[in-house]
Amino acid sequence: MAPERFFLELEPPAAAEPHWPHVVVVGGGFAGVRVCQALANRPVRVTLIDKRNFNLFQPLLYQVASGLVSAADVASPLRQMVGQAPNVQVLLGEVVDLDLERRELLFNGHHYSYDQLVLACGSGSAYFGHEEWRPLAPPMKILEHAQEIRRRLLMSLEEAEQSTDPQRRRFLQTVVVVGAGPAGCELAGSLIELMHSAIRRDFKQLRVEGCRVVLVDAVERVLPTMHAELGEAAAGYLERNGVELRLGTLVEAIEPGKVLLKGDQEPRFLEAATICWTAGVRASRLGKLLAERSGCDVDRSGRVLVEADFSVPGHPEVRVVGDLCCYCHTADGAPLPGMAGPAVQMGAWVARDILLGLEGEASPPFRWLDLGSMAVIGPLYAVADLRGVRVTGLLGWLLWGLAHLAFIPATENRITLLTRWLWQIATRQRSALLITGRPNQHIGVDVGLARAPVRSAGPALQDPALAVDEPLR
């Protein structure tokens, strides 16, 4: 006997007609929010489903980790962003299964029907099969993890202030950042500046000379996806400001307070009270689930290989956008990068294609407008590659700031961020240096990535959700 099916049937919003096509968007990141914005006040019913009730501006998470801004400055409630449109409803919860033949998804214990489905579930950090490293070296993909990095560093400085052992102080004032991409460089540069400014202003027993931030990666240069000239400029700035670079070096193991490196350089052990992880990306587990249900292919990171219209082969009503999709229909065949710009453009195109399809019209092919890439390395210093125009220093920082303010979805957050940045420039003070929460309180938050077993020496982890994956939609 087939299991009983319980359907979630919600009344359409007051202004929406019941016979309008129902578009379900899973994920409230850059791509998902853009789909909803483009479909707002149009003749479709839209339901946005996310495990979190806010949109997170991930490019600025390192500023939360280093106390430059607070959590509320980089997050915007979804109901305020898109839920106020009369034809858009926002539902909180997790999609755990898909029935593509019936056009249903399993959500909060109920089957929920759709006419068009857009999966925009994002990506998170990968530890290359070493999930046991996650509690020791927090990633930086969600608010809680950024706050945990900040809490660990500030607690280490507080303990160092009371320590009379020089070696212990040195250990407590040492940070290791794994990953020399934009996120790793931004985090390393921001953390060394945080320690220097905090020690000069707020700590009486510590010395700036005792601060140490080590940036580790297997690549041969920082910012490997950007032009070598910009990578060289970024490396020079980091080293001048006290960041040590250990490049061409693999991480072999991470233990409490230690990082074991694989290579010929000495020392092979780096001892640090604070270890952060910015290397490796993997897609939401909904990508793997979709592959199982539809037979579509995924790449090594779990991203879904999509058609030119972002649909899944054999299911034109299912679209995959943002970091969850691997879109290779480009001029050079290279997949689009997992950044905010492509995600926003994907979401806008898919929304327009859905609307044109309802009218029986075809959309022009998707064309990605490459706006370039940027990374801020320190106060008033950034590197930017604007389609071949390479900029460094203060001008790069100004361009970076304008670009990020433009991408921030909420006007209130734009004003708040601009105010905080100007205040920090004028006073060199950081206002978000509160130590809150319990140790490791949010390390095991699970919001949608592929579940991976965690190797443990004992039975302490009874619930697998306690030691897996950061939240994604």
The CATH superfamily of the domain at 22-125 and 282-358 bears the name FAD/NAD(P)-binding domain
Globally, the shape reads elongated
- Strands of the widest sheet, in order across it, are 5-2-1-9-21-20
CATH topology title of the domain at 22-125 and 282-358: FAD/NAD(P)-binding domain
Poorly predicted parts: 447-473
Class of the domain at 22-125 and 282-358, according to the CATH hierarchy?
Answer: Alpha Beta
The main β sheet shows up as:
6 strands, mixed
Mean pLDDT: 87
Portion in beta strands: 15-25%
Helix fraction? Answer: 25-40%
What is the CATH architecture term of the domain at 22-125 and 282-358? 3-Layer(bba) Sandwich
Count of strand segments = 25
Kindly name the structural category: alpha/beta
End-to-end distance, in Å? 33 Å
Radius of gyration from the alpha-carbon trace, in angstroms: 23 Å
Number of helical elements: 11
Question: Keywords for this structure?
Answer:
FAD/NAD(P)-binding domain; six-stranded mixed β-sheet; elongated
Textual characterization of the structure:
This protein has 473 residues and is of the alpha/beta class. Among the domains are: 22-125 and 282-358, FAD/NAD(P)-binding domain, CATH 3.50.50.60; 137-279, 3-Layer(bba) Sandwich (FAD/NAD(P)-binding domain), CATH 3.50.50. The chain is built from 11 helices and 25 strands. It has a 6-stranded mixed sheet with strand order 5-2-1-9-21-20, covered by helices on one side. Strand 23 and strand 24 form a beta hairpin. It is elongated, with a radius of gyration of 23 Å. Mean pLDDT is 87; it is low at 447-473.
